[in-house]
Amino acid sequence: MPELPEIQALAERLDASLAGRRSAGIDLLHFSCLKTVAPSPEGMVGRSVIAVRRRGKYLIWEMGGPRMLVHLSQGGRLDLEDPPKRTKPRGAAVRLGFEDAPSVLIKEFGKERKAGLWLLAQGDEGPLARLGPEPDSKDFHDLIMEGTDKRRIHSILRDQRTVAGIGRGYSDDALHAAGLSPFATLSSVEPRARADLLEAIRQILADALDIERRREGGLPAKLGDHFTVHNRAGEPCPRCGSDLRRVSYESYEITYCPDCQTNGKILADRRMSRLLR
User: Angle at Cα 114 formed by Cα 254 and Cα 166, nearest 5°?
Assistant: First the structure.
């Protein structure tokens, strides 16, 4: 799933291509993509794009009052079509057309959570109202440094109502960099380790954004090639050389290093436990 660095860099590229252009139409290529009823897609035609920006994992087209939101979810990807196209390739969900500018094709390859489009009237926050603070905000700083949340830290970082923009990938990498177990609870972590976690999150997101800003065009199918530990179970830890391990759940997995993060303890993996029975 694309996270804050991927979406931020993508928003910057879209803004450079589309700011000042007028909407030429919204072509719904899959009925389930549109998540709102009003305003209608036809009502957005002719409105100028003031800016394209990001909030959490959402792309936001500011349209001088109304807004368009896109969330790519698990398997969503985005193509900038220059020149614009009218085809319907595999996985096509919606095409956003603009006058004298590339069209934007949203594609979906996920099996569960799907990419979505929201058309919001002026003043309507839609799904943005449920988002927590950004990772670089004072509210998030205070939560990590002073909070007593008893949930696992990995769960906190992935919860978009707690902090917006981080997912499984950068949670894995940040906890590895900070030397913290993904199963540790925030309430049990000492102040020095909390500060280390904040610094790890800041640095990892900044480094990833630098890499993502080197891309051109849309968002390709292959992502996450610059993760340090995420999705690298079985490979040697880049810090100590021990084998990275994973904890598997029904629809996702956590990657960690036992030697660097859990004092050598192997965390319970229900899927592996079932296979060994």
Answer: 40
Within its chain, how far is the Cα of 166 from the centroid? 6
Whole-angstrom distance, CA of residue 276 vs CA of residue 269: 11
In contact, 224 and 5? CB cutoff 8 Å: no
Number of Cβ within a 10 Å radius of residue 264: 10
Q: What is the pLDDT of residues 50-83, one digit of tens each?
A: 999 999 999 999 999 999 999 998 888 999 999 9
DSSP 179-235: T--TT-BGGG--HHHHHHHHHHHHHHHHHHHHHHTT--SSB-S---TT-SSTT-TTS
Question: What's the CA gap between 21 and 49, in Å, rounded?
Answer: 6
* Parallel, antiparallel or unpaired: strands 253-256 and 245-248: antiparallel
For residues 262 and 107, what is the distance between their CA atoms, to the nearest angstrom?
39
Distance, in Å, from the CA atom of 182 to the CA atom of 255, rounded to the nearest integer, reads 9
- End-to-end CA distance of the chain: give it in Å, rounded: 32
Phi, psi of 78 (to 5 degrees): -135, 130
- For residues 205 and 170, the answer to whether their CB atoms sit within 8 Å is yes
Phi, psi of 182 (to 5 degrees): -65, -15
Q: Please, what sign has the CA dihedral across residues 4, 251, 147, 186? A: negative
Distance CA 158, CA 254 (A): 11
Taking the C-alpha atoms of residue 182 and residue 20, their distance in angstroms, rounded to an integer, is: 44
d(CA 76, CA 83): 21
Q: pLDDT band for 222, please (50, 70, 90 cuts).
A: confident
What is the distance between the alpha carbons of residues 124 and 215, in angstroms, rounded to a whole number? 32
Radius of gyration in angstroms for the set of CA atoms belonging to the chain, rounded to a whole number: 20
> Residue 124, CB half-sphere, CA atoms under 13 Å: how many?
16
Helix axes 4-18, 191-212, angle to 10 degrees: 40
pLDDT reported for residue 52:
98
